Amino acid sequence: MDLPVFEGEVYERQDFSNGQSIGGEPYFRGEFYTCTFRDCDFNAADLSGVSFSDCTFEGCNLSVAKLDGTRLQDVYFKNCKLVGVDFSICGDFAFSVKFEQSNLHLASFWSKVMKRTQFIDCELIETNFTESDLSRSTFKDCDLSQAIFASTNLERADFRSARNFAIDPASNRVKKAKFSSTELAGLLYQFDLEIE
């Protein structure tokens, strides 16, 4: 079955939560190219198998949206709520995302290859990055409270303005990663030191 194709469309203040329709289709299905979604609600929406290429989401709520096999290629999320989203089940081919001023509390990127990903001014609280490849990624002005880094490739990643992270250099690849001297305690937490 061929999926409907949408190109260059702009969707504003639409409710796609819990399987609402788009373009007359009973569920949110299709391939979206260079589309923009502004202030749309995708809360708990099933976006499985949907393809997004060069798309932008601004001010959207995608909390607990289902992304099983969803293709995200060059997708930009700005000022979005992505609480509890499991990106680990997205399609791996050409996976490329950017996040700015977004809430990714309890999101999961487990085992995801996402080199050079930009996280700018994001809340990444309790976000799971276990076994993911974040080499050369940027965490600018991000809150990483209780974020999980285990067997994660963080080589050449930039944490200079990130805060509240706890990264064990012995169980993660951190070669040439960049850190601010004021946040070095986040690399030594496992030693239970009192740093002043």
TrEMBL record:
Gene3D superfamilies membership: E3 ubiquitin-protein ligase SopA
Pfam families listed in its UniProt record: Pentapeptide_4
Top-level lineage group: Bacteria
Signal peptide: none
Protein name, UniProt field: Pentapeptide repeat-containing protein
Annotated organism of origin: Bradymonas sediminis
